[in-house]
């Protein structure tokens, strides 16, 4: 009964929270590209390689943009998307590191060893050094490359840093989340350090500046000092709107009527980020880049619903393989697009940006075989069919196995206890534990009730390890067809088996106490020597199993530093 009640509520709410149309009568924040004189004179191939601006936001929910019906104000994003191409069949990964690694390498995380969790600050781990990155390919094509914002692809040795992986300049944080003003990050009680870097140095002098503004200002400075006749690639990975929920007071005041405090702060952060994008767009126009530019906007994963985000009407949240965790906000804005002002339903995945952008830059892809991404520019610019027909969302052999999964449930070819998900055509399959599975409306009310959110999960799914949905007909994942279509289940399981045969071992080494900021001048940064790097290179043994080896030298070293850290903390207190 609880299931039907919740489903009924959700369907009614879906209508009441329906997508709203934008008011086209308001003046645009960016130029009307339809009247751009370049539009009629553009040759079939670009006269010169375009400037590429890739904007990635952190933890922004699918619902949390104006053109998806949100009550959060995002006028810049709305207009850029409306005047470009909205990607409404666009997929990302459910958490930070996987999305960023797939963007930078064009490969599924099973092909880089990063298929489990994120890279944690104290792990001797980073994006594999044998991977040729997107900025490296653009450098080969003659581009100046710059990164501003959140890295989160490892930093335990200098070779892992952004400036060693293809970026000419870098301003941002290396870890997963920092204070927006102080840039402090704590990876557990007492394990805190400063994390804002300029190139390979700690940027102590920038403390106190709100990161969203700081990053937009840096992009402005880069554009002002570069020659617009030379191609440039800028990767803007905003920290916003990841926790902690912090925003300048004037933005919070705009949402003072919102009763839910987390949602109010979160909304302020989204709007602040939107204005930062406006300033970047303005700089592109001011300094002569805009007419030959391509702006790509993408979120990195689903919103965290308990921290103000909303993925409504999709199911699930950040960290899950439901649509709410993996379907992203995405659009492309450019005067170079042939068919503008439209919505595209072409299947696109975050790995596709690598070959797409390198191809736009007239770069060479012949020496990077085995990419999982496709060149989707014809689908975006001309409305052609997407070359992509399937997406491997992931296979994670280390994630907690589902209690009721088995090889028998997987027709003897796949252990359904293993967390995995794949999309083939209109069908989507999930096995193992996909994660928190409810539909959560935007939290706009004071003390919004949370007890009923779990009703559907409590009554449906406790004894399941296989789900099948027709995503085209059922994008909200309400009707599990696994029992009705065992033939489709088997077919998709075979695809998982195929991909799993190509997977490399998981890279998820144990944390090392030498990474503690107290041993690095109070800041997070590279800490491994060359000898250490050789010792740990390629180590992929799970953290849990490695912690059992109490007699190893590293374990003894860890024990020593724990005791030392305890003394240091005692002195602080």
From TrEMBL:
Lineage start: Eukaryota, Metazoa, Chordata, Craniata, Vertebrata
Keywords (A to Z) from UniProt: Calcium, Glycoprotein, Hydrolase, Metal-binding
The name this protein goes by in its record: ARSI Arylsulfatase
Pfam families, per database record: Sulfatase
Source domain of life: Eukaryota
GO molecular function: metal ion binding; sulfuric ester hydrolase activity
Native species: Chroicocephalus maculipennis (Brown-hooded gull)
Family to which the UniProt record says this protein belongs: Belongs to the sulfatase family.
PROSITE patterns registered for this protein in UniProt: SULFATASE_1, SULFATASE_2
Gene3D superfamilies hit by this protein: 3.30.1120.10, Alkaline Phosphatase, subunit A
Residue intervals of the Sulfatase N-terminal domain: 50-361
Cofactor needs: Ca(2+)
